[in-house]
């Protein structure tokens, strides 16, 4: 049975007082070409701009994936199965009768070795047409308070080649006793490793699909 695809909608909180907008649209993320970045600036401005208040930090990361956009989105959109590519997640549970729509929640268990054990998260946006999703951390046993993230999936085609760029950004409170640099380094590392795993998973899916299409027909 195909996954339900809700109407595009979102639940984005109001900006904090005394906040300033991020400038992710001014700096090319590591791994992107200038041409890719130029094409993505409108999406970065629309979906990856945050109002950052005192005691918060934000970042934008990018991952190029050698797989079609729809293949990548089919994995990214599954709010109920983040462990498919987020390998720091041990398990994810949702309530009985779960429907993937804005406002639904998931309870995540994190692998040992990280300064976290559980996280309760709410789906803020799921737009299948524009391929945008995002969530907010509501609670749990961890140090990343008020963590909010947005992920967008973008298809490219040049000279007969097809590939995808995934952008993921976040804003988060800086824990007491930590510096902005330490907080960003930790969060960036987790996001970067997740995006690398997403590339491995979806490129394998694309190869399997291509191999299946190339198999000889049995008469």
From TrEMBL:
Region Disordered: start-end pairs: 1-24
Record SUPFAM superfamilies: Bet v1-like
Compartments it resides in: Cytoplasm; Nucleus
InterPro entries reported for this sequence: Plant_def-hormone_signal (IPR050279), Polyketide_cyclase/dehydratase (IPR019587), START-like_dom_sf (IPR023393)
Nucleus listed as a keyword: yes
UniProt KW keywords: Abscisic acid signaling pathway, Cytoplasm, Nucleus, Protein phosphatase inhibitor, Receptor
PANTHER family: ABSCISIC ACID RECEPTOR PYR1 (PTHR31213:SF6), OS08G0374000 PROTEIN-RELATED (PTHR31213)
The protein's name: Regulatory component of ABA receptor 11, PYRABACTIN RESISTANCE 1
Gene source species: Hibiscus trionum
């Amino acid at each position: 049975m195909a996954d339900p695809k809700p109407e595009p909608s979102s639940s984005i909180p109001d900006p904090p007082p005394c906040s300033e907008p991020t400038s992710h649209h001014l700096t090319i993320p590591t791994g992107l070409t200038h041409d890719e970045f130029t094409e993505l600036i409108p999406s970065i401005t629309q979906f990856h701009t945050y109002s950052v208040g005192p005691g918060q930090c934000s970042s934008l990361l990018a991952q190029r994936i050698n797989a079609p956009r729809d293949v990548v989105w089919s994995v990214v959109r599954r709010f109920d199965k983040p462990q498919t590519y987020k390998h720091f997640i041990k398990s994810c549970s949702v309530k009985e009768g779960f429907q993937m729509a804005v406002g639904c929640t998931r309870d995540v268990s994190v692998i040992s070795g990280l300064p976290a054990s559980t996280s309760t998260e709410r789906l803020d946006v799921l737009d299948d047409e524009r391929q945008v999703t995002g969530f907010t951390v509501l609670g749990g046993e961890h140090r990343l308070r008020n963590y909010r993230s947005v992920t967008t999936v973008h298809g490219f085609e040049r000279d007969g080649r097809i590939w995808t760029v995934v952008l993921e950004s976040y804003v988060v409170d800086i824990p007491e006793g930590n510096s902005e640099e330490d907080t960003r380094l930790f969060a960036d590392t987790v996001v970067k490793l997740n995006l690398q795993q997403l590339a491995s998973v979806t490129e394998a899916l694309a190869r399997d699909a291509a191999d299946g299409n190339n198999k000889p027909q049995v008469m």
